[in-house]
Amino acid sequence: MAEDVSVVVVTFNALPWVERSLDSVRGHETIMVDHGSTDGTLELVRERFPQATLIEQENRGLAAGWNTGIRAGSGQYVLLLNSDAWATDDAVDRLAAFADDHPDAAVVGPRLLNSDGTLQPSIRGFPTRWRLATEYFGLRKLAPRSRALNAFYGGGSDHASVHEAEFIKGTCLLVRREAVDEVGPADESFFLFSEEVDWCYRFAQAGWKTLFFPGAEVMHVGGATWRREFDRGFKEQLRGHVRFFAKHKGPKEAERIRRLLLTALRVRARIMPAERRQTYRDAADWLASSSSATLLESSR
To answer: Distance between CA 11 and CA 36 in Å, rounded?
Structure first.
């Protein structure tokens, strides 16, 4: 079973969690794609994990790192694993065995747990104008278990049984190489955030399924990398939303999304806790500065 799965871990200043991440997948072909770490990540990996293939490249975003790792691997499945996440017990083999039994699944996602063992919801719904409104205007907090007000974050989703999902949080995804060969690699125009949304959407359009499998569990710290640069990460999250709509719904809908997000952030800048208001003001100013097409072309 081990030879069926190649593990890809993309890193950028991934201490202290990357050691636990890589240790959890020993015995599987492992490719680590590093995007310019300067915190000792590279030295640790060379010393502790000489069996891993280490690839250093310019930071062109998470999707680019995934694609490099996938090309370097040989398994019929690729496990995309965050550097701040680790598989428990035989989770990797369980995911592969489940995928063997479900040949129509392009993506299989495990049950995610927080580091304290509590559930980390990972089932998501494809973005729509309404779903983004419920998120950015805070409506989902009124009824977080409601699909009407929280479908984007999978409100009311069952994390105890196998079922199909629209997409699953990209922390840990087992991806079938055959499906990648058919649909194409992850879209590298998504720098950070929404790359898994776009990929699962494309798989679905081609007739493949994304399945949630709670029989395998993965621990995830969450945000260990991007929260160090929250302002930049937040802007990339917004850019990812706009890019998804521009790509799949057209430029007019992307413009509607830009205006919706702009309005929501101006509201947030007035009512949210003081420590976040400047982030929302800056993001609103960025959204107001140009059309959606120009924002998508602008440098990061």
So the answer is: 8
